[in-house]
Write a structure and sequence with these properties.
Helix content: 40-55%
Distance between the termini: 69 Å
Bound molecules: pyridoxal-5'-phosphate
Order of helices and strands: EEEHHEHEHEHEHEHEHEHEHHEHHEHH
Structural class: alpha/beta
CATH architecture of one domain: 3-Layer(aba) Sandwich
Strand content: 15-25%
Number of helices: 15
């Protein structure tokens, strides 16, 4: 039997034509097609009455504490994995290095499969179960895939992951260990994507595609809800987020807006969206004010290497609504940020995870962000996901014979003692 509809969801609204639909298993607007991204609507008066600092005080510190603002029924049995309420660190030495008065890192690499994507996958598996699916699928080489495999395992759902032939072995291993059926498609990412969509239709699997699935973005929103609750009235001037498809920054922006509606913060921090120079079609559209033109996608930050983003409208809408800005950074700046964030902030992020730090540094140099302002950068993925890039960003270990005098000589040579 289908569980009852989520308590506070009133429907789904197309961001293009504004048509609203009832709450149900829809992906995009039936009238507008793939461009018609749907946005989940809530009864905010009812949510505000139920979700107060008083009620929050009695709840567990994970992202389900905002259940009134999530598309879930009360009966949904939540995955056991801890997701969300990731720590915020004050990092004065990194702040000095990027040239800003006050800087915080919110470490989303601390999620169960080590990336921000867990916020979305955790909601995705619940929606799949609510709609009666026995299996969930996606086409991805990266964090969305490992996250889906992990959460499917946690709730006992079958997962089928389509990966392109060239996917690195460590990533395939992470999928297999969670028990996912991994289909290695002899072809490109696009061909894996198409095959996945066809298989979902034919075999009745739920498609986890956060570009078009309206519910997954609601999971991503929780980082915005958390930033508002964790900082309260002291929310920083800027929230810095790396941007690929645009769902993450769009979700965080929505979360911040909702927390202002509910009275947890009284102003919206400005969003700074950071893309890689080799893959920045959303920045192009942000600057031109015109529809997005797909671009090539070539950057060391593979998790934001998106040439044809699906959620660009929502991303730009939220950035503009916050009086925010966008900026692009070169791969060298991302590599530098990897080292800096680890050495001066104690957080090891993957290239897309630290792109925000690089973007903030450039935005300060350009005067877009002022030196006397404050910022929080969301570190979206853990550095152990991609040690090849990390190794390129740093030096070598000292290789020595097991002899104290040799050790002393090397340490002197490298000015360590
Ligand atoms: C997916 C991802 C992003 C960007 O999210 P989008 O919704 O694609 O904009 C940033 N960093 C990491 C580590 C990611 O996995």
């Amino acid at each position: 039997m289908k569980p009852p509809a989520a308590t506070f969801v009133t429907g789904l609204r197309c961001i293009l034509c504004n048509q609203t639909y009832g709450d149900g298993n829809l992906h995009t607007c039936p009238k507008c097609g793939i461009q018609g991204i749907l946005d989940v609507q809530y009864d905010y008066d009812a949510a505000a009455a139920a979700l107060t600092s008083g009620t929050l005080a009695g709840r567990s510190y994970n992202h389900w504490r905002y259940r009134e603002l999530l598309p879930l029924s009360d009966e949904a049995s939540l995955p056991p994995l801890h997701v969300g309420w990731t720590p915020v660190y004050d990092v004065p030495r990194l702040a000095a290095a990027v040239g800003i008065h006050r800087l915080f890192l919110k470490d989303d690499g601390r999620n169960p499969t080590n990336s921000f994507k867990d916020r979305a996958s955790s909601v995705g598996v619940l929606k799949a179960q609510e709609f009666g699916f026995k299996a969930i699928a996606c086409a991805s080489t990266g964090n969305a895939a490992s996250s889906l495999a992990g959460f499917a395992a946690a709730v006992g759902l079958r997962s089928v992951i389509f990966v392109p032939e060239r996917t690195p072995e460590p990533k395939v291993a992470q999928l297999l260990i969670f028990g996912a059926t991994v289909v290695r498609v002899k072809g490109s990412y696009e061909s894996a994507f198409d095959l996945c969509r066809e298989a979902c239709k034919k075999f009745g699997w739920y498609n986890r595609n956060s570009g078009t699935n309206p519910f997954l973005v609601e999971g991503k929103k929780t980082a915005g809800l958390e930033i508002a609750e964790q900082f309260g009235p002291a929310v920083p001037d800027w929230v810095v987020v790396s941007v690929g498809d645009g769902c993450t920054i769009g979700g965080i922006g929505k979360g911040l807006q909702e927390m202002r509606k509910l009275g947890f913060i009284d102003r919206i921090p400005r969003l700074l969206g950071v893309q890689a120079e080799g893959a920045c079609p959303i920045l192009g559209s942000f600057l031109s004010g015109k529809d997005l033109i797909p671009s090539s996608a070539s950057t060391i930050a593979d998790s934001i290497a998106v040439g044809t983003p699906r959620n660009w409208r929502r991303a730009i809408h939220q950035i503009k609504a916050s009086r925010g800005e966008m900026i692009a950074v070169a791969d060298e700046e991302i590599m530098e940020a990897m080292g800096m964030t680890a050495r001066l902030g104690g957080v090891f992020g993957e290239p897309a995870g630290v792109a925000g730090v690089a973007g903030l540094k450039r935005a300060i140099a350009r005067g877009v962000v002022k030196r006397d302002e404050s910022a929080v950068v969301v570190i979206t993925g853990n550095g152990l996901k991609d040690i090849q890039s990390a190794k390129r960003a740093v030096g070598q270990a000292l290789e020595i014979e097991p002899d104290f005098h040799v050790l002393e000589k090397h340490l002197l040579e490298h000015s360590i003692i």
